[in-house]
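Researcher: Next sequence.
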Amino acid sequence: MKIHFISIGGAIMHNLALALLENGHIITGSDDAIYEPSRSRLEDSGLLPKEFGWFPEKITDDLDLIILGKHAKINNPELLKAQGLNVKIHSFPSFIAEFAENKKKIVVAGSHGKTTTTSMIMHCLNEMGLEHDYLVGAQLNGYKNMVKLSDAEIMVIEGDEYLSSPIDDSPKFLHYKPDICIITGIEWDHINVFRTFDSYVQQFALLIESIEDGKPIYAYANDTELIKLIDKYDKKQIEPYEPFDLVNGQIEFDGSSYPIHVFGKHNMANMNAAYRVCRELNIADADFFSAMQSFKGAAKRQELLIDSGERKIYWDFAHAPSKVRATVEAFTNAFQNEKINVILELHTYSSLTKDFLPMYKDSLTGLDNAAIFFNPQNLKIKNMAALEPNFIRESFAEDRLVIIENPSKLEEYMLRIAKDFKGIVLIMSSGQLGGINLYEIFNK
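Model: Next structure:
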């Protein structure tokens, strides 16, 4: 097929383009800006647009398909041209749903832990030599891309609740129609789209309703809002799960001990969810836990970036309040004899919103040092009100919180850490820290 991507530079979009190119399709694409690592990967494959921007002349009636990214606007000139020519238009989730229609689809949904749980399932399938397609939100060890499309009978999908495309405002996960589903929990997110908590919860209700009766749904038992929701669906096959017990870095199961690299209650919950899916796929318990012994996490999830002996630099994707709390708890429990210095970047629309910030209250307790970084330029781009440092401190209920408002000041702060601090440095961000180079700072 001849397929054109509108907004090819996104994390999933460029991986989907690479997967389709690998399958022999003719791929073109456009975008108004493309950043690393998407840029280099597209360039290496010959898919990087020669010019950035939107070019209606790229849209011709011999195209078999348009795949439309969420980053594009509803008045995008390429989109308008495609609509005028009646070229078939897919969002990436609707394309995946059509491609995987006859596969056994495992969908991992929830406000947090999706990527790690999906990664655990994929890692186990890989270790067992079970062929599978996948769509996951981070680069994983042992996998070339974040998307694979083949004739495998199984597909593992990280199911996001965010909107599908500029012309499709349904949550992505509603396209997939899972045969096995995990819901890791519900915490209000994407408040630029879901303006009330009730409207956000409703998306998960729609997901549950979209799943055929009798097909298993695994729901995290310790999430109050999720349990409140699933209690309404007594005709669905819903099974709650709790975290595994981790003692001295090991999981005890059925009389055997399994050393595990990842840590924290949230990851033990993720692992139990993955275990239940793999059990549903007839993978023996011992095989699952043996596979988990070599699981070291997804990129930027408890990822150890630098170890100088006296200082370890970790990066975690945590950015929403529950993710920050869970990650801080995991690190304070795992490194009780170490000092911990945390840097949290406020990067998403929600985290920069004054009405949302108080939800972070007490999420940074128990730390030796903590700093918040945000770039005021992001507020201007999003037409959002300025944030005062004292308001941020009040929201977190942390008087000693260091507030850093530009990348150069952040670099100065980190250089001081590199010179004077010994212990654990935990960076939590879904962004890029203003583009500073951690390896240059901490390897000097």
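Model: Residues 303-442 form a domain with the Protein-Tyrosine Phosphatase; Chain A fold (CATH 3.90.190.20). The first strand starts at residue 2 and ends at 6.
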